[in-house]
Specification:
It comes from Algoriphagus antarcticus. The protein has six helices and six strands; from the N terminus they run E-H-E-E-E-H-H-H-E-E-H-H. Strands 5-2-1-6 form a four-stranded parallel sheet, with no helix packed on it. Strands 3-4 form a two-stranded antiparallel ribbon. A hairpin with a 4-residue loop joins strand 3 and strand 4.
């Protein structure tokens, strides 16, 4: 049976996101959806030496109720250098950083204006590096599309993953500290575990 899941587009999604979609045939994304503040659309979490840090992409204007595909990145701010330095500081010594980071760096170097486009390109790379054969599709109102599940609006920073029934953390090697930090950005897993990342994601799918 084909499994099609409606999801929100995130900036370097966390592991809960991938646990949700890991066994899907496709994910359906909605560029016309209204931008919501305090969401993962423009933020992700990485593990630094002494803390878990949030990286946020600044966006232009006061952000009235407009669609996500109309949100523009505020490239007048120095966010890109901050993100690049933070990622390098967090994962520069990780086993697979030198192999995987160039894929993301190429997208960063494009200085994209659209946050939707940036997130789409980065998610495409993440799925490829994970080896997940999940297709990405844009919702089309002109077609009759049947969804297996719809998790839009559920994965939000203000509600911990433990309140939902999707992700059961599977610990893996992390660079700093003795305590495992679950549900970080997919970057944390990819840079630390490389080809083993897919198996870890599959093990983290919560049994229903």
């Amino acid at each position: 049976m084909e499994k099609s899941i409606a999801v929100d587009l995130h900036y370097f999604p966390n592991l809960e996101f991938f646990a949700v979609i890991a066994q899907a045939n496709e994910i359906v994304l909605f560029p016309e959806a209204t931008y919501q503040r305090q969401s993962f659309f423009n933020r992700t979490q990485i593990r630094l030496a002494n803390k878990v840090a949030t990286l946020s992409v600044p966006i232009q204007g006061r952000r009235p109720r407009i669609s996500q595909n109309r949100i523009k990145i505020d490239n007048d701010q120095n966010w890109l250098n901050i993100h690049l330095r933070s990622i390098q500081s967090a994962y520069g010594k990780a086993p697979f950083y030198e192999y995987y980071f160039p894929y993301f760096e190429k997208v960063f170097q494009q200085n994209l204006e659209s946050l939707w486009e940036l997130n789409w390109e980065m998610l495409t790379i993440c799925l490829k590096l994970l080896g997940l054969s999940v297709k990405m599709r844009v919702h089309d109102n002109s077609q009759d599309q049947t969804l297996t599940a719809d998790i839009r609006g559920q994965l939000i920073p203000s509600a911990p993953f433990s309140e939902r029934n999707y992700y059961d953390p599977e610990s893996y090697f992390q660079l700093f500290g003795l305590d495992f930090d679950p549900n970080l950005s997919i970057l944390d897993l990819l840079f630390c575990e490389g080809p083993a990342s897919k198996g870890i994601v599959l093990k983290s799918v919560k049994k229903q």
